[in-house]
Amino acid sequence: MENGLLIVISGPSGVGKGTVCKQLLHDNDKINLSVSATTREPRAGEIDKISYFFIDKEEFESMIVNGEFLEYAYVHGNYYGTPKKYVLDKIEKGNDVLLEIDIQGALKVKEMYPDGVFIFILPPSMEELKKRIINRGTETEDAIEKRFMAAYKEIQYVFKYDYAVLNDEIELAVKRIESIIDAERYKVNRQIDIIKEI
């Protein structure tokens, strides 16, 4: 059986990664969303092993020591990480796994699993990105400016990814990602078993 793909999607804040990933998952039932582990308490409506793997700090730190994460981070007093076993088990069963993650996390995953498909979502323009951040209506002017400046720096990381996808329209962005996934399946190094049988 052919292995699935690890599809890693990231990009600057406000670019619409979440919306693109949600549509990609909706349109493709063979793609599984990666489930992260965290030490924070579950919020209302969150379900263990579906929303997150909710584990205590001691267990999380033990998993770090044992090299059980593709990547992890300590944010606002809690750990968050991508369990390696969960992802690799899915891939070995022929399922594709989607990981929507920040840039630092994506680059750590690339070190651990260079065979992944790393896709950077780009805004149509910086003006449009700023408009999207403002239209969220959830932040102060100062916070918007900081987020915009951070996004400007984050875009420089695009060259560390395999692909860049413009998010001008959700449906088009999803189609572009689906084309990348199709092309990746036909790479020679992913078809060694088939080639050997010819």
How would you sum up this structure, described in words?
The protein is α/β, with parallel strands linked by helices and 198 residues long. The protein has a single domain (6-197), classed as P-loop containing nucleotide triphosphate hydrolases (Rossmann fold, 3-Layer(aba) Sandwich), CATH 3.40.50.300. 43% of the residues lie in helices and 20% in strands. It has 8 helices and 9 strands. The protein has helices at 17-27, 57-65, 84-92, 103-112, 126-135, 141-154, 170-185, 192-197, and strands at 6-10, 31-33, 37-38, 53-54, 69-75, 78-83, 96-100, 117-122, 163-166. The strands form 2 sheets. A 5-stranded parallel β-sheet has the order 2-7-1-8-9, with helices on both faces. Strand 5 and strand 6 (78-83) form a beta hairpin. Helix 1 (17-27) packs across helix 7 (170-185) and helix 5 runs antiparallel to helix 6. The protein is globular and about 60 Å long. The model has no long low-confidence stretch (mean pLDDT 93).
Which features would summarize this protein structure in a list?
alpha/beta; 4-stranded mixed sheet; 5-stranded parallel sheet; 198 residues; Rossmann fold; 20% strand; single chain
Outline:
The chain has 198 residues and is of the alpha/beta class. It has one domain: P-loop containing nucleotide triphosphate hydrolases (Rossmann fold), CATH 3.40.50.300.
- Could you list the spans in which at least 5 consecutive residues all have pLDDT below 50? none
CATH architecture: 3-Layer(aba) Sandwich
CATH class: Alpha Beta
Based on CA inertia axes, which overall geometry fits? globular
